[in-house]
Write a structure and sequence with these properties.
Layout (H helix, E strand, L loop, with lengths): L2 E4 L8 E5 L2 E5 L8 H7 L7 E3 L5 H13 L5 E5 L1 H10 L5 H7 L6 H5 L11 H18 L8 H20 L5 H9 L9 H18 L6 H20 L5 E7 L6 E2 L5 E3 L2 E3 L12 H8 L11 E4 L4 E4 L14 E3 L3 E4 L15 E3 L6 E4 L10 H4 L4 E3 L1 E2 L4 E2 L2 E6 L2 E6 L7
Parallel strand pairs: 3-4, 4-5, 5-6, 11-13, 12-14, 13-15, 15-16
Antiparallel strand pairs: 1-2, 1-19, 2-3, 6-9, 7-8, 8-10, 10-11, 17-18, 19-20
Length: about 425
C-alpha cells in the first residue's frame, strides 16, 4: 500500500511517501521542528531518501536535524547550492572592506591597520571554507571581525562573539535557559571537535538571524541565515557515510529520472561533476549567493510514480517552465502538493497540469500565512486538503492511502480556506 502524509511541521513543507519501494521524505520543515521524533512516532525506521527541494530554512532545516540526529537514511538529495557555497568560500578574494560595506557596518580598526591571513587547518579544506563562511556571517549579524590565525582560532573567536550575542538575548527572559539549550542542540557528542564547533557556529548564526528585525536589516538577515544554513550543511556532511546526491534546478522541463528510484526531477538534473569555479570571487558574488535561499519560485519539482498511482511535489516554484507546449500530463490518480503552498503567485500554472481523470486527483497544501490569499485554481479543485484549518486556526496531519483505483482519506479534512 502506498501512503502519503503531510507532517504537521511548524512551518514549511514536510511530505512522507511510503510504498513498497521504501519511505521517502520530501522536505523537512524548519530547524528544531521535531522531525526525527515525528518519524519515530510513525514507525519510520529508515528512509530510503531524504530530499530537500530548496535550501530555504523551512525546507532544509528538518533535513539538517535528521543529519544531526544521525537518523537512518540511505541517501540525501540536496540542492547544488549546498555544494557550491564551500567552493565559493575557498576562492573568496578576502576583500573584507567591501564585505563590511555590503553588510552596512563600519570598518573595524584591525582591518584599517593591517591585512587578513587566510586560515589554515589540519582538518582539510572543508574546515577552512567553513571558518570563512562563519566569519562572513559574524560580520553580517554583528559587525565584528573574527578572521586571522588558524581555523580553530577563527571558530573560537566567532563562538565568543555569537555566544555573547545569544546570551544577551535570552538572559533574564522567560525560558532563557531552555532557549540557550535549544540553540546548543542535542547532537554534540565530541564537544570541542572542529565539526561540533562549526555546527555550533551555524546554529548561533541561525538564531542571530532570527533575532534580526525590521526592513532595514533584511539583507543582512537573509545573508546571515543563508550562511548559517551553509555552515551547518558543511559540518553535518563532513565525513558522513550516507550517500549524498546534488541536484540543480535548470528552469526547464527536464523529467530526468533519478537512478534506482521511482522519481523524476521535473525541472532539474543531478550533478555528476561540478563545474569549474572562478579563480576568485568578489564579496558581491558571495553576498548574492548567500541570499539565494530567499529567492522565490526557484525550487525543484519532483514526481513519483508507479504502475498504479503517483505524487507531484511542486514545492517553492511558480512552474514558469510550463506552457501549452510543455505541460505535465498525469495519467494515474495523483496527489499534487500545490505550487508555492497554494498561493496566488503560481495561479497560472494549474492549467498546464493536465490529467486524464482529474476527479481522481487530490490537491494538498501545507503551511501558508493566514494573511495571504489562496489560489483560485486551487480552490476550484474537486478534491483538496489543507494542513491548516483556516477557520479554527488548527493544524491537522493529512494521511492518504492508495487502494484499488483511488486515494482514500484516512486523516485530515478538506480545505475550507478563503
Amino acid at each position: 500500500m502506498t501512503q502519503f502524509r503531510m507532517l504537521p511541521v511548524r512551518c514549511g513543507d514536510a511530505y512522507l511517501l511510503k510504498s513498497g519501494r521504501g519511505a521517502y521524505l520530501v522536505d523537512g520543515g524548519s530547524l528544531a521542528g521535531f522531525l526525527p521524533e515525528m518519524l519515530h512516532e510513525r514507525t519510520i525506521g529508515k528512509l530510503r531518501a531524504a530530499i530537500c527541494t530548496y535550501p530555504s530554512p523551512e525546507r532544509l532545516g528538518g533535513i539538517l536535524d535528521l543529519m544531526e540526529e544521525r537518523y537512518r537514511v540511505s541517501e540525501y538529495w540536496l540542492p547544488d547550492w549546498l555544494g557550491i557555497m564551500p567552493m565559493l568560500a575557498q576562492v573568496f578574494n578576502h576583500d573584507w572592506e567591501k564585505w563590511f560595506e555590503l553588510c552596512d557596518w563600519p570598518l573595524p580598526e584591525e582591518l584599517i591597520v593591517g591585512g587578513v591571513a587566510v586560515p589554515s587547518s589540519q582538518q582539510g579544506a572543508w574546515a577552512e571554507n567553513a571558518a570563512i563562511l562563519v566569519a562572513l556571517g559574524v560580520v553580517a549579524c554583528s559587525g565584528r571581525f573574527t578572521m586571522g590565525g588558524s581555523t580553530q582560532h577563527i571558530l573560537e573567536k566567532s563562538l565568543d562573539v555569537l555566544a555573547e550575542q545569544a546570551s544577551g538575548r535570552v538572559v533574564g527572559t522567560p525560558g532563557g535557559v531552555r532557549q540557550t539549550l535549544q540553540i546548543l542542540g542535542r547532537g554534540f557528542r565530541d564537544w570541542g571537535s572542529t565539526e561540533e564547533n562549526v555546527l555550533l557556529c551555524g546554529r548561533l548564526l541561525y538564531h542571530a538571524a532570527m533575532a534580526m528585525t525590521g526592513n532595514e536589516t533584511k539583507p543582512q538577515k537573509n545573508v546571515t541565515m543563508g550562511l548559517a544554513m551553509a555552515v551547518m550543511g558543511i559540518a553535518l556532511t563532513a565525513g558522513v557515510e550516507t550517500k549524498i546526491r546534488y541536484f540543480r534546478q535548470t528552469g526547464q522541463l527536464e523529467n530526468s529520472l533519478v537512478a534506482r528510484h521511482p522519481f523524476k526531477i521535473v525541472n532539474g538534473i543531478e550533478i555528476t561533476s561540478w563545474e569549474t569555479v572562478p579563480k576568485t570571487v568578489s564579496p558581491e558574488t558571495l553576498f548574492s549567493a548567500a541570499s539565494r535561499p530567499f529567492g522565490r519560485g526557484k525550487g525543484l519539482v519532483l514526481r513519483y510514480g508507479d504502475a498504479e498511482c503517483g505524487a507531484l511535489f511542486c514545492g517553492d516554484t511558480t512552474l514558469s517552465f510550463l506552457n501549452k507546449n510543455n505541460a505535465l500530463l498525469l495519467n494515474q490518480p495523483t496527489v499534487i502538493a500545490a505550487p508555492r503552498q497554494g498561493g496566488i503567485s503560481a495561479d497560472h500554472a494549474y492549467k498546464y497540469i493536465l490529467s486524464v481523470n482529474p476527479e481522481n486527483n487530490i490537491w494538498v497544501r501545507s503551511h501558508y500565512s493566514y494573511a495571504c490569499k489562496v489560489s483560485n485554481s486551487f480552490k476550484k479543485s474537486p478534491n483538496k486538503m489543507c494542513l491548516n484549518n483556516c477557520v479554527h486556526r488548527t493544524v491537522q496531519e493529512v494521511l492518504l492511502a492508495f487502494s484499488d483505483t483511488r486515494w482514500d482519506w484516512l486523516a485530515g479534512g478538506g480545505c475550507i480556506c478563503d
